[in-house]
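Slide 14.
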Amino acid sequence: MLDDPSMKHLHWRWLLIVGALPSVVGTFMAAAFLNESPSWLASRGKEEEAREVLVKMNRMNGNHCARLEFSAPLEEPNRSGYADMKRDLGIIFGSTMLYTTLVCCFNCFCLNFLYYGGLYVFPQVLSGSVKTGTSPALAMLMGALWEAPGYILALGFDRVMDRRPTMIVTLLTLTTCVLGFVYGGSHQPEGRLQYLMVHVGFAGYKCVASIIFLFALQYCVEIYPVSCRVAGTRLSVGVGRMGAIISPPAYEWTTAFFGTWTTFFYILACFLVLNAILVAFLPFETRGKPLRDSMEDSHETDPLCQSTERTKQI
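Slide 15: predicted structure.
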């Protein structure tokens, strides 16, 4: 806002330096307040330190256990990196987890396309075709502030709804916000209702996106057994980053080909609806379930849509 409220002639080097400052602050905060991983401590024989960390985590989560007992993990035999990768990929793309892995990857791709595409597209759209009554920089700042209520709502959803229904509801709500923004922005001269749809659609876009982002990433982390959790999560996040990379040129290409900014948002809306349909067929629910140490740790769960296999082991 201080550099250029229209966001057309920004000094990008200075902005990158300023944008790096929160990471510097976060580094010192992490060093001062972040607990060490109890799994890492236990694997190196520091069981008492691991137990102290678990007690802190137990207290912060509002539980009351007199003493937390655990079994130290067995030291695995030395294996090559190729053997580890082959084992992880065998689980991630095995018959049990294949559909879930593909949906998690598409989910992350879609949400990165939405979030980072919005960061690229909105300054251009709000400074040209769509009017908000403020400068593009101020509109983007208000959009960023709308993300905060989303995080608060995410806490509420976490207490009352499972992961899969929450993702479906938020994806469909987000679709409504996208279409509302497009309709209002493309028919803005017609009246006050269209002007209101722009503001509500934009605010909902930012607010609901933060909810679905949290739950999608949390689901990716929770769904895999600990032996391949890092690999599975990295795969989903890595595919998601492809969506972030593709979104800016996708906007430029669609705008140049169709001659309108609305095409990008219609494509995004189709992605969101398809994503919601795919999530409905996910066979595993993770809310309230113990995280698995291996594929042998199992309990039954059902897909939301029963046209898939009736029960699967997780």
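Speaker note: The longest strand covers residues 300-301.
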